[in-house]
TrEMBL record:
InterPro entries: Mur-like_cat_sf, Mur_ligase_C, Mur_ligase_C_dom_sf, Mur_ligase_cen, MurD. It is found in: Cytoplasm. This is UDP-N-acetylmuramoylalanine--D-glutamate ligase. It comes from Sporosarcina ureae. Residues 313-426 form the Mur ligase C-terminal domain. HAMAP family: MurD. One of its GO terms (molecular function) is ligase activity. Its EC number is 6.3.2.9. NCBIfam families: murD (TIGR01087). ATP binds at G119, S120, N121, G122, K123, T124, T125. Belongs to the MurCDEF family. Signal peptide: none annotated. Pathway: Cell wall biogenesis; peptidoglycan biosynthesis. The gene is murD. It catalyses: UDP-N-acetyl-alpha-D-muramoyl-L-alanine + D-glutamate + ATP = UDP-N-acetyl-alpha-D-muramoyl-L-alanyl-D-glutamate + ADP + phosphate + H(+).
């Protein structure tokens, strides 16, 4: 670790006892800071709180005492999920106490360079692709953030000859001040999390923290097909690497129907890529650009692209069954994600969709339902989605009460060369504890076909 001396004797409040809070509190304590942890939940039977207390860290639970900030903390590390509207955090903002997330600690302490990936969609796929490319090229990657170990925990142990591949959400990035990755990736921007950020501009500002502090010696890989991103980063100092799926471009990385181009020159043929969909092509371009900038050989990149079939529950290839190709896209909890999934295939689709009913419209999917042969619907929105499908001209729409029944019905109404696709367009909590659990049940049912 580097820059450790700056934390000696600092008074730090860690808000939130989730895994990032526990990791940050323990790390700061080991670095010589005076740490207090506060959580809204009762500490009774809380193993995390007990663990911290055995280390000599003070923990206060059951709410946020009004006089807590009178202790004159030097800075606060908050759990990313705690909104700035929280009474304690809002009061700290008024007092101008610096409020970080543990990602800021990772950036300060890491000996290893960091590649940070953010965006509304595609973060996990891009992060995973890049990790595999770096690993194939023997660049000693470490994965951190939303799909890996807490970033500051990875940074504590990382060596200079390694590289941290960090998936960073807007919640995490909003709590950074000096965070400066060697390579930043901004995949795309769509309206999301406005209940947390308050406005689209604040959401964008949080995402821009991934590159705002970069120097001219660092790189920003960004979606050149989105004008909002292009305009927002114009004044940034980093070397900008645009990516585009709209055809061959002279700068950065781009793609048409046949090739991926690097700086305008053919690099990899599209036909060698396993992962389907235009949205995944965006992920592929940004990951490939980062791999090239990290010194990965072309063969390592090609080997990954020719074998990678997707992250679990995100357009994950499951199997072929009697000439039907089956994909698990359980992570598609909104219409935007399902729209991307539907547009990924040219062959007929049997779609399994439905879930928690939040009252949202499915109209955004209408132009993309032309290729859907049949639908099998589940969950609270089963009847509503079936009616929507029929209004789109889908003649076969049936309801299922369980995932196993849905898979059996989907297979029964499919034909050779069809795609059977789970892409629910709804959250999972009406029937399942998580989209992962929903996807696992889908995979289990598919393997029993």
């Amino acid at each position: 670790m580097k820059n450790t001396e700056q934390f000696i004797g600092k008074k730090v409040l860690v808000v939130g006892l989730a895994k990032s809070g526990v990791a940050a509190a323990g790390l700061l304590h080991r670095l010589g800071a005076e740490v207090l942890v506060n959580d809204s939940k009762s500490l009774e039977g809380n193993e995390e709180a007990i663990e911290l207390q055995t280390q000599g860290i003070e923990v206060i639970g059951g709410g946020h005492p009004s006089d807590l900030l009178e202790r004159n903390f030097d800075f606060i590390v908050k759990n990313p999920g705690i909104p700035y509207s929280n009474s304690l955090i809002a009061s700290a903002v008024e007092r101008k106490i610096p409020i970080w997330t543990e990602v800021e600690l990772a950036g300060i302490l890491s000996e290893a360079p960091i590649i940070a990936i953010t965006g509304s969609n595609g973060k996990t796929t891009t992060t995973t692709l890049l990790y595999h490319m770096l690993n194939m090229a023997k660049k000693n990657p470490l994965i951190a953030g939303n799909i890996g170990t807490v970033a500051c925990t990875v940074a504590e142990k990382a060596q200079a000859n390694e590289v941290i591949v960090l998936e960073a959400s807007s919640f995490q990035l909003a709590g950074t001040e000096s965070f400066t990755p060697r390579i930043a990736i901004f995949t795309n921007l769509y309206e999301a999390h406005l209940d947390y950020h308050g406005s689209m501009q604040e959401y964008l500002d949080a995402k821009l923290q991934v590159a705002r502090n970069q120097t001219s010696e660092e790189y920003l890989i960004f979606n050149a097909d989105q004008r909002l991103i292009k305009e927002a980063i114009e004044s940034f100092k980093s070397e900008k690497i645009p990516f585009s799926v709209l055809g061959k471009a002279r700068e950065g990385i781009s793609a048409d129907g046949e090739w991926i181009y690097w700086q305008g020159e053919p690099f990899i043929e599209i036909k060698h890529i396993k992962l389907p969909g235009r949205h995944n092509l965006e992920n592929i371009l940004s990951a490939t650009a980062a791999a090239i900038l990290s010194g990965c050989e072309k063969t390592a990149i090609e080997n990954v692209l020719s074998s990678f079939t997707g992250v679990r529950h995100r357009m994950q290839f499951v199997r072929e069954a009697n000439s039907r190709t089956i994909y698990n896209d359980s992570k598609a909890t909104n219409t935007l994600a399902t729209k991307s999934a539907l547009s990924s295939f040219k062959m007929p689709i049997v779609l399994i969709a439905g879930g928690l009913d939040r009252g949202h419209s499915f109209e955004e999917l209408r132009p993309h339902m032309k290729n859907v042969r049949a639908v099998v619907t589940i969950g609270e929105t089963a009847e509503r989605f079936a009616e929507f499908a029929k209004s789109c001209g889908v003649t076969e729409a049936t309801l299922a009460s369980t995932m196993h029944e849905a898979v059996e019905k989907a297979y029964a109404c499919s034909c050779e060369d069809d795609v059977i696709l789970l892409s629910p367009s709804c959250a999972s909590w009406d029937q399942y504890e998580s989209f992962e659990n929903r996807g696992d049940q889908f995979v289990e049912a598919v393997m029993k076909l």
